[in-house]
Amino acid sequence: MTLSKTLSERIEQRRQAGSLPRFIAVEGPIGVGKTSLAKRLAMTFGYDLLLEQAEDNPFLSRFYRDPSHYALQTELFFLFQRADQLRQLQQQDLFAGSRIADFLIDKNRLFAQVTLDEEEFALYCNVDAHLTLDAPRPDLVIYLQAPARTLRQRIVRRGQEDELQISSDYLERLSGAYTEFFHFYDRSPLLIVNAADIDLVNNDQDYQQLIGELLDIRSGRHYFNPRPLV
Predict the structure, then answer these.
(1) For the segment 163-189, what is each residue's pLDDT rounded down to a tens digit?
(2) How many CA atoms lie within 13 A of 155 on its CB side?
(3) Which of 48, 56, 84, 102 is catalytic?
(4) 3-state secondary structure of 221
(5) I want to staple 7 with a disulfide (CB 3.0 to 4.6 A). Which of 3, 106, 159, 164 is the partner?
(6) 102 an active-site residue?
């Protein structure tokens, strides 16, 4: 997809001025489309892509089938995985370049709060505290927001067998946890996107509106509710 001339010129102007966000993190609950958007943004800006490796977690499929028995193993695996990934990136100085990530390390505890009981969460927090993760701060965070019913529809459309086991109750609780997390988030400039009725991957108009909004952000909290184009 080719951006409009105006958007391409704006991107180049900010690039020349050194004011493009060099590290962008895309976040949101499962099914909202964060990985697909991260890939498209990486192509648009010519950035490296940093993806969460959920498929490497051997407990995840078991968690979807039986959350109460496999939640702690699943969350601890993700915690150690992100810690290892972060250390590798720091050792290689990969955060010195420009990149798009489909996760925000700051939200490590978000899933744990949703899936773990009180004692398990206390153990998780103790392990997390001892890891002392020093995560780089994104220059921009894009939070894709959609109601649980929309997430369910997209998960069904995607058709991955393990994800189809996810309960509607879990999606509701996860969406609520994300809303609460980003209500208080202030570490980086934040763009909250109402992604319920748009397609940022296959609809060029939706995507170009998002790019235009993104290029206007320098600091603070912003909300993007796409408008129909005429």
Answers:
(1) 888 888 999 999 999 999 999 999 999
(2) 20
(3) 102
(4) strand
(5) 3
(6) yes
